[in-house]
Design a protein that fits this description.
Distance between the termini of chain B: 71 Å
Number of strands of chain B: 0
Number of helices of chain A: 9
CATH superfamily of the largest domain in chain B: RNA polymerase sigma factor, region 2, helix turn helix motif
Number of domains of chain B: 2
Shape of chain A: elongated
CATH architecture of the largest domain in chain B: Orthogonal Bundle
CATH topology of the largest domain in chain B: Rna Polymerase Sigma Factor, Chain: A
Order of helices and strands of chain B: HHHHHHHH
Radius of gyration of chain A: 28 Å
Largest sheet of chain B: none
Number of helices of chain B: 8
Structural class of chain B: mainly alpha
Helix content of chain B: 55-70%
Oligomer: heterodimer
Number of strands of chain A: 8
Strand content of chain A: 15-25%
Shape of chain B: globular
CATH class of the largest domain in chain B: Mainly Alpha
Chain lengths: ~230, ~170
């Protein structure tokens, strides 16, 4: 390899580990200097290309994908259900049809963020109130002392709050989804977790607990401590 | 079970490549929200054909190809063809009061899209010229020409002895 060929290579593939190229560089001081400059340029270029990426991007894509997949699943289940009803005279389990996508996303969100349970965050009442006000709700009393985790999270419809509450009756998760309006209450049991999704003045909120009994107690606790202002 | 495995593999691919896909998209449009939309759409289309994926090692190249096509589809009606510009005519709009990386970014953005795409796939994707040629649906020789000319143009623009000084004389 001669100098001209080597310098062409520096333009087309400066990180090439070609043996002939390396040998030429080691034997030619001027080309070695060119290589040094080319690699410095390459490093600066790599840095420039690496624009900051929202750390939650991948998680949001996965959640969005699960939500859409769940909706597709519901449509498929509905279509299949209609066929079965027509053919078999209406004997059909409606369990699949009730797999509310927001409920699915809420449970999957909790499963996907196990670190939220390990947190022992101290949350000021004002911060909690500000967080819930985005859903048109306000804290009545006592809830902030029981919160151990409060975080902005990607949720169906956009961004919401992921809140872990360590209530006297047990620990549960409250997820607010201010940009995700729902028409009615929906419940779901999935992967060992139980959730209820309910309308809020702005969007919806979900409570996720590890048993049906805990969920009922959590729902009572939230009803006592938060005013959702839904008529 | 097979479906579950497919989904897990897909989600692993999202976590592995979303950042690089976003950066590639960003440098195609230089708009953060459009770039995110392009990445979302890329993965939606990828999932629709996920069962056809046999070689997950090649998935990154496949995803970048989808994104490239999505971007072309998005802008096919409104894009201005700038690839015919002479590289010598490029003017870098540089704010010298900002950090040095800004000059590099402006120089990169000032490249004609065809040159920028090839350079991004090489530097960001780590692809060979043959792989880039497949993604961009062109010849390997053309890819080598594009990356070579892109580097030459950027170095000229960023050099203290670049044409900018000559022009001011």
């Amino acid at each position: 390899m001669n100098c001209l060929e080597y310098r062409r290579l520096l333009l087309t593939d400066p990180r090439s580990a070609d043996a002939q190229a390396v040998a030429h560089r080691d034997s030619c001081p001027r080309c070695a200097e060119h290589a040094k400059q080319a690699l410095a340029f390459e490093q600066a270029l790599e840095e420039a290309i690496k624009v900051p990426v929202d750390p939650s991007l991948a998680q949001r894509i996965v959640l969005d994908h699960k939500l859409k997949d769940s909706q597709r699943g519901r449509r498929r289940a509905l279509a299949a259900g209609v066929l079965v009803l027509a053919g078999a005279g209406g004997v059909l389990s409606m369990r699949w049809l009730r797999a509310d996508p927001i409920a699915v996303a809420s449970i999957d969100h909790v499963i996907g963020e196990p670190s939220s349970f390990a947190a022992q965050q101290r949350v000021a009442a004002a911060d909690l109130n500000a967080a819930l006000s985005l859903s048109g709700a306000s804290v009545r009393s006592g809830l902030a002392e029981a919160v151990t985790y409060l975080h902005d999270c990607p949720v169906p419809g956009g961004w919401g709050k992921h809140i872990v509450v360590n209530a006297p009756s047990g620990r549960f998760t409250l997820i607010t989804m201010p940009s995700c309006p729902v028409a009615r209450r929906a419940t779901l049991a999935r992967a060992g977790l139980f959730t209820v999704v309910m309308p809020a003045r702005a969007g919806a909120f979900a409570i996720v607990a590890d048993s049906q009994r805990s969920l009922a107690e959590a729902e009572r606790y939230i009803a006592q401590t938060v005013d959702w202002r839904v008529s | 079970m097979f479906f579950g495995s497919q989904r897990e593999n897909f989600e692993a691919m999202v976590h592995a490549h979303a950042a690089d896909l976003y950066r590639f998209a960003y440098w195609l449009c230089r708009d953060r929200s459009v770039a995110e939309d392009l990445v979302q759409e890329t993965y939606a289309r990828a999932w629709a054909n996920w069962r056809d994926v046999r070689d997950e090692k090649a998935a990154k190249g496949w995803l970048l190809t989808i994104l490239h096509h999505e971007h072309a589809r998005l802008y096919e009606r409104k894009s201005v063809e700038i690839d015919e510009r002479e590289l010598d005519d490029i003017i870098v709009e540089t704010d010298f009061s900002l950090e040095a990386g800004v000059e590099m970014r402006n120089a990169l953005w000032s490249l004609p899209r065809a040159y920028r795409e090839a350079l991004l796939l090489q530097v960001l994707g780590g692809f060979s010229s043959a792989e880039i040629a497949t993604t961009l649906d062109t010849s390997e020789a053309n890819v080598l020409q594009r990356v070579s000319r892109a580097r030459k143009a950027m170095r000229r623009l960023l050099s203290p002895d670049s044409g900018r000084k000559e022009e001011s004389r």
